[in-house]
């Protein structure tokens, strides 16, 4: 598996911090996912070998935590908080508008591969709901009326540098080695 | 006179010109308390925390000093300190401000606490969504290490302790302390059975561990600074110090307000500080301390004898004092102080469906009543909001909730049951009315198949 040298360096720097190797499961999953865009079977096996645990132990973690994914996603990851405080302020309408503007259904990726929209549970910024997280940036007070600027920013982000997630081979294709 | 905030933890939050870097923190007297604390004996610091009467700010409200007393010091195993920064109870957004705007306050609080309990190593378990929060904390830890406030031989005292930031990955259950420990060990966040797995005895790596919330650990700094007995004078008997109320939902000025426990009422908080309801609206309901706490209906009366004073009380929601004791006397909890306000435009059936979608999604699946019950409630309440409710669903809903409560390893079972039970008690009529008229086009329904608020 080809990981960027910076990722490998970060991974190595984590080991002395923990008294137990298995504790590194979540950090390693995060780092590999950031590098690869998702966690392939090959990636999980690699993490397991690195931590000297069974690959099953990594899979059970990956399948439990919503932030880990086993398939590539769109170039820009849009997460809309749907929990009560945000919902009271219009999160469902916000999500519908984003789906429409980006031609992407929630829970899926747009046909051009640019966007993935997800409804997520509480992001813990309830006082400024609805909140939308675009990759690692949080946008507050995203009521349906204030979405024009956000949509423009999301579209701008999609036209920026390509990321691995978009180009990662799909399971089942010849390029896929998982 | 309008109520005043009393900012202790939030003293510098939103202060113009105040930054998260260590120089700014030091200019404002930062790490002085740590230096003072390192001169004292660890057991004396624990006593100060015990005397302060501080209760945990993560929701459960367990006395912090008592928790620390439970530490198994005889086993000879290393002791760990874990900061629970997995803030994810809907309605709660108070720890975020400390982490993002004043991270050194937390680090100083953790360094003092770690020394007091003689922890070998400390972890901050931060929720995965706070990506920037984790970066801010890592930077702050580097800065603190460079100045000798954490790491080897802290301030020349001979005591060493390092802090590691550990990111979660989006599971609400990891805010439960034993679920958090499992997650930190690199496993699924399945809560452990207590006993025997009381973290203070068998916690992280089966070693004695203290898990405290971000706000709790930040409070420790102020307790040591002012002394336990002095701190205990703030607030009321049984609930000392200040509480941060994160108000969200249908109010003019949602936000976070730090208030001395018991010094004001919900009415003062909602009208004076939050600006009252939105134009043309009236308050309808209030979830006082995070979405799992029991809902209160405006217009209902709460009567009884106050546990602290013995005086009889007769309150509406607006009259309830903002402290854990008074809220408990009204049949609900202060929890995390994350208050969600709903006005008369809100359909309560949609509210419960929204909450059940959350709790159904977040059940870890370990205990059958919670796994099956929360999913059943989720499916049922969603169906009800789509216009396919049956009158018997209302009682069935309550029945399922009753079957979950008290039958699970962790309090997630109660977090599912309490909203349903309290909705049943307070809004049953509204549910039945809506169900009775669902055929005649009255009321809101969402044909798309999900609750739409």
UniProtKB/TrEMBL annotation, chain A:
[2Fe-2S] cluster binds at residues 81, 86, 122, 126. Pfam families: 2Fe-2S_thioredx. GO terms for molecular function: 2 iron, 2 sulfur cluster binding; metal ion binding; NADH dehydrogenase activity. Its cofactor is [2Fe-2S] cluster. Keywords: 2Fe-2S, Iron, Iron-sulfur, Metal-binding. Binds 1 [2Fe-2S] cluster. The keyword Iron-sulfur applies. Belongs to the complex I 24 kDa subunit family. This is NAD(P)H-dependent oxidoreductase subunit E.
UniProtKB/TrEMBL annotation, chain B:
Belongs to the complex I 51 kDa subunit family. It holds the Pfam family NADH_4Fe-4S. GO terms for molecular function: 4 iron, 4 sulfur cluster binding; FMN binding; metal ion binding; NADH dehydrogenase (ubiquinone) activity. This is NADH-quinone oxidoreductase subunit NuoF. The keyword Iron-sulfur applies. It comes from Ruficoccus amylovorans. Keywords: 4Fe-4S, Iron, Iron-sulfur, Metal-binding. Residues 349-394 form the NADH-ubiquinone oxidoreductase 51kDa subunit iron-sulphur binding domain. SMART domains: NADH_4Fe-4S. Transmembrane segments: none annotated. NCBIfam families: PRK13596.1 (NF010120).
């Amino acid at each position: 598996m080809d990981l960027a040298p910076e990722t490998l360096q970060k991974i190595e720097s984590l080991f002395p911090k923990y008294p137990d190797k298995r504790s590194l499961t979540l950090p390693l999953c995060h780092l590999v996912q950031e590098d690869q865009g998702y966690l392939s079977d090959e990636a999980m096996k690699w993490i397991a070998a690195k931590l000297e645990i069974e690959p099953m132990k990594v899979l059970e973690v990956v399948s439990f935590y919503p932030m880990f994914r086993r398939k590539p996603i769109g170039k820009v990851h849009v997460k809309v908080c749907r929990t009560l405080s945000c919902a009271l302020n219009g999160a469902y309408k916000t999500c519908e508008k984003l789906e429409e503007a980006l031609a992407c259904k929630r829970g899926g990726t747009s046909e051009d591969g640019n966007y993935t929209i997800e409804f997520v549970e509480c992001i813990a910024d309830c006082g400024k709901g609805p909140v939308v997280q675009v990759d690692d940036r949080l946008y507050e007070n995203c009521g349906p009326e204030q979405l024009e600027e956000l949509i423009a920013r999301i579209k701008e982000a999609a036209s920026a540098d390509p990321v691995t997630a978009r180009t990662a081979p799909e399971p089942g294709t010849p390029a896929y080695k998982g | 006179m309008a109520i005043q905030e009393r900012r202790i933890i939030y003293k510098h939050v939103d202060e113009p010109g105040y930054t998260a870097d260590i120089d700014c923190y030091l200019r404002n007297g930062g790490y002085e308390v740590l230096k003072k604390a390192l001169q004292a004996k660890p057991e004396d610091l624990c006593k100060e925390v015990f005397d302060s009467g501080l209760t945990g700010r993560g929701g459960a409200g367990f006395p912090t000093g008592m928790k620390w007393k439970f530490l198994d010091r005889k086993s000879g195993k290393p002791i760990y300190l874990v900061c629970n920064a997995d803030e994810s109870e809907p309605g709660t957004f108070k720890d975020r401000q400390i982490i993002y705007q004043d991270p050194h306050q937390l680090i100083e609080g953790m360094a003092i606490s770690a020394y007091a309990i003689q922890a070998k190593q400390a972890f901050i378990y931060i929720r995965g969504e706070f990506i920037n929060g984790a970066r801010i904390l890592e930077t702050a830890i580097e800065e603190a290490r460079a100045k000798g406030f954490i790491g080897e031989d802290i301030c020349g005292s001979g005591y060493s302790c390092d802090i590691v930031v550990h990111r979660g990955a989006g599971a609400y259950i990891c805010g439960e302390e034993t679920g958090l420990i499992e997650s930190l060990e690199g496993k699924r966040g399945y809560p452990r059975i207590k006993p025997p797995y009381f973290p203070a005895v068998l916690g992280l790596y089966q070693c004695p561990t203290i898990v405290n919330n971000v706000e709790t650990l930040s409070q420790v700094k102020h307790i040591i600074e002012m002394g336990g007995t002095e701190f205990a004078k703030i607030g009321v008997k049984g609930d000392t110090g200040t509480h941060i109320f994160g108000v969200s939902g249908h109010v003019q000025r949602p936000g976070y307000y730090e208030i001395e426990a018991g010094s004001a009422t919900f009415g003062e908080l909602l009208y004076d500080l939050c600006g009252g309801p939105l134009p043309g609206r009236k308050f309808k309901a209030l979830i006082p301390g995070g979405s799992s706490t029991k809902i209160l209906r405006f217009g209902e009366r709460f009567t009884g004898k106050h546990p602290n004073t013995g005086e009889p009380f007769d309150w509406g929601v607006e009259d309830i004092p903002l402290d854990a004791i008074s809220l408990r006397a009204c049949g609900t909890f202060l929890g995390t102080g994350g208050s969600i306000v709903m006005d008369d435009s809100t359909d309560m059936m949609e509210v419960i469906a929204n909450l059940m979608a959350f709790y159904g999604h977040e059940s870890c699946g370990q205990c059958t009543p919670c796994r099956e019950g929360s999913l059943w409630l989720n499916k049922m309440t969603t169906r009800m909001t789509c216009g396919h409710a049956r009158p018997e669903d209302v009682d069935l809903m309550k029945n399922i909730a009753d079957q979950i409560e008290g039958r699970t390893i962790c309090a997630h079972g109660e977090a599912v049951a309490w909203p349903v039970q309290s909705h049943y008690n307070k809004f049953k009529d509204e549910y039945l009315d809506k169900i009775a008229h669902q055929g005649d086009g009255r009321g809101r329904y969402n044909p798309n198949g999900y609750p739409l608020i």
